[in-house]
Amino acid sequence: QVQLAESGGGLVQAGGSLRLSCAASEMISSINVMGWYRQAPGKQRESVATINSGGNTNYADSVKGRFTISRDIVKNTMFLQMNSLKPEDTAVYYCMVAGRMAYWGKGTLVTVSS
What is the pLDDT of residues 71-88, one digit of tens each? Predict the structure, then answer.
């Protein structure tokens, strides 16, 4: 069973930066899309950024210009560079990889203080 592990979350002041990483326990074949999602307290999980097999990226309007998704296919790793963080970015961030099936990490908490 493939496992995804996020890292890099933590507490940061507004305006600061964090870099999240997502590592897979083994090679995942036929990846269609990889992405980062987040869930804030009392809210539904939402898509933050995705990158497909062609390298095309898509971002939520709320993070455009501040967050950047990237991947290292060889190392089965995905990243989310988050700059100019805002208190409303506070959430648990999950990575997802979809190939023949979708895999999810357990999440990493990002807290942005004002």
Answer: 988 888 999 999 999 999
